[in-house]
């Protein structure tokens, strides 16, 4: 029965999308007439429509982030092996007690408009990011920095833990040992002070610049965003190692359309669904790359609503699902069932796998007093085969334990409003990178990081978990740190803060004319080093 439902769901999606929707913009590898590779353009698939606010202050959005990974850079970046690497920083040092972090910037860097780049831009950016008045969606990540509390409360006008002693040096000081701070805030994209510096903190996030960010430090510069068509970026002439491809067009479309356009040359780089693997393998014009993802697909239950506060309800929802079958049937085995927020390599043994147990789910719902007449809404952004099919399966399997679910297809740009107003019940989404350091999980679990201060969009709060995470992050002894993180993972697994579904593998197809592309992880991962991409032939 389950397999039949899945097949019906996938067949329906295929029928709907086989007639490839037109997507305007240049043809792949179009030539501007100069005849050199540098004048050719590249078409890249975006798995969702961007919200169109390309700002480090805005709530995290996968497609917007992928665009920004071409036009912006941070002091550090995360490479395809999920390791931090210097980008705008030439080097960095960490004091033995992990309280002082010193970055040396590359010399001679310029913004894309030719304005010199200095540590003042870094200081400007970090101060904005830590200031709740800017509506920074990650302000909660900066609470471990010295002086942030006094700055946020109005007792201080600057943050003592941030300093720029000279044009090429930026220093962060933490209030106490903080071994995960680099992973948490080291790669934030730097904003131009000469463009935004005149805005008051409570106005800067609304600056029109973020919808037309034509000045940046990345290898490409923003040109325009044609809604429902493409985002056009062009090579930044002032980048330290200028991009070798002149123009890149990032095109949002369904995964089915992207696969079809891989075959006809309309798209050069795209992630693809496991269900399309056989089709893609038949294209003689592309190569493929496969990589385990660092994030995961999940369903957040809005715990600001009383009926999701009881952990028994959240546990029951997990027991209702057959996630192994979802991985095998919807994703063709190209994913791993997720057991917690912690990356697979970092999770301890003995976590509850919440294998499907319908009787257990019904028992927990009864104990929690779940009202079987209540209807809850599950919202998600339509267009990815795995997420579309999974939404339908979740609806069906929750119905089997007495939970009525209404599916709601929503546009990506509409989602932040549902977070801010706490109006949603359930949202299916994916992404994140939790493989760099376990401390990053704090960004989606800590009480202090409840939206809009951070990425805890489900409003989960467990002070004991926060304490364990804080203790682990401040412990110099690696074995002890690991032990504390293991305790935190078991507690988080027991509390079922999220409905963890699966960690999808990144499946990428690349036109053979394109060289230098490294699969960054799953379909929502940021692109790595696009300046090194080239087109041959």
TrEMBL record:
GO terms for biological process: peptide transport. The keyword Transport applies. Residues 1-21 form the signal peptide. Pfam families: SBP_bac_5 (PF00496). The keyword Signal applies. GO terms for molecular function: peptide transmembrane transporter activity. Keywords: Signal, Transport. GO terms for cellular component: ATP-binding cassette (ABC) transporter complex; periplasmic space. Residues 83-440 form the Solute-binding protein family domain. CDD domains: PBP2_NikA_DppA_OppA_like. PROSITE patterns: PROKAR_LIPOPROTEIN (PS51257). Belongs to the bacterial solute-binding protein 5 family. This is Peptide/nickel transport system substrate-binding protein. It comes from Asanoa ferruginea.
